From TrEMBL, chain A:
SMART domains: AAA (SM00382). This is Amino acid ABC transporter ATP-binding protein. Residues 2-237 form the ABC transporter domain. It comes from Chitiniphilus eburneus. Gene3D superfamilies: P-loop containing nucleotide triphosphate hydrolases.
From TrEMBL, chain B:
The chain crosses the membrane at residues 20-41, 62-84, 90-109, 153-172, 192-212. Its main location: membrane. This is Glutamate/aspartate import permease protein GltK. The keyword Membrane applies. SUPFAM superfamilies: MetI-like. The complex is composed of two ATP-binding proteins (GltL), two transmembrane proteins (GltJ and GltK) and a solute-binding protein (GltI). The keyword Transmembrane applies. Part of the ABC transporter complex GltIJKL involved in glutamate and aspartate uptake. Probably responsible for the translocation of the substrate across the membrane.
Amino acid sequence: MIRFSNVDKWYDREHHVLKNINLKVNVGEVVVVCGPSGSGKSTLIRTINQLEPVERGEIWVDEVQVNNPRTNINRIREEVGFVFQHFNLYPHLSVLDNITLAPIKVKKLAPAVARERALELLNRVGLAHKRDAYPANLSGGQQQRVAIARGLAMQPKVMLFDEPTSALDPEMIGEVLQVMQDLAKSGMTMMVVTHEMGFAREVADRVIFLDHGEILEDTQPEWFFTRPQHERSRQFLRQVLAPMHG
Amino acid sequence: MDFTQVIQAFPSLGNGLLLTLELTVLAVIGGVIIGTALALARLSSIRVLSWLAGFYVNYFRSIPLLLVITWFYFIVPFMVGWVTGTNQPIGAFTSCLIAFMMFEAAYFCEIVRAGIQSISKGQVNAAYALGMTYPQAMRLVVLPLAFRKMTPLLLQQSIILFQDTSLVYAVGMMDFLNVARSQGDITGELHTFLLFAGLVYFVISFGASTLVKRLQKRLTV
């Protein structure tokens, strides 16, 4: 489904943010990407839909190389859903219009069909009653659930999540993770950048640990949590799992 | 002071005011459209385009409006004749309207540009991530958001434009102020007429300005 081969990326030609990334995500897999801040994990998933360009290597989604200049990147982006840390809903549109905008304008779906599908998705994320509300009147958790519905409305083959719960108040993290877990159960291929280790343990098929732009671990959650291979991943796990008020 | 003279002149003053308002509204519409196009050009990654738009804006912001009005009064008929191939007079109204549109476009451009730049990168990325092209992202997301933020500024600029339309006296147009002045000359009540004209400009401008401030409060919520 997604394949990185020998991918390198630099910022300003000197800061090496992704180092020789080789990675494969199979259909239906849920892969959690974690690592300390500045490790390049957000950059990594942003390269898949080319919100960040790469300088070397190849990235493939299905049978299409996304970083080939001849590829129409917009066609790829239609099939790769993306959920942002800060939701980025359109503040001038209602919840329903946020979800139907791209299906109608990009996929040329009939408005009635797009609407019906949007309502279905809103039901799925438990926000059907908010369809006429505006983003400013929703809580962070609700906004993120709408953003997930917005991504799903394009009927993507893959969903990418860039720290979807990092900007949320603690009491709202659960509702968003629940929606993501349901989505994973439905068989969606997912790549999730997150610090939520509970989610990684319970939902992920694989955990990737990134540090300084390098993949240090790519393994099953069980192995990652019980027998991490590198000192740096052990240190990371101690930090995120340690009881903070101990 | 004899205000009965003013009341008697109401029909012609009304015509003058109508012309002033017509000129203002049309110039604002045209100016915003040209200004938006200029703003998109200035922000374009195509160097030549952004340089040309930048030059246009800097040029028109550096010369007096009165100069543009008189200059266009002479030059626009030639330009129109050259484009259409005919030699028909086009009238002061059209040439003044074009002058205002093009002059104000430079100011509107800077407002629109600031508006576009104020939209967060995240909103733009969200549009791209859903497969939108650059024109789609601009038209469906960035410009609607930007105009929402800019509306108060655009309206303030329009109020200034409303006052500036009085400069069309230079090419003999009978706008509100020019009518008031000539009526004042005819009746010998110049002071009364100018006082009245001032009052009308003040009521319209100040009233509109107050409305804009109220709108601004509502939009920022």
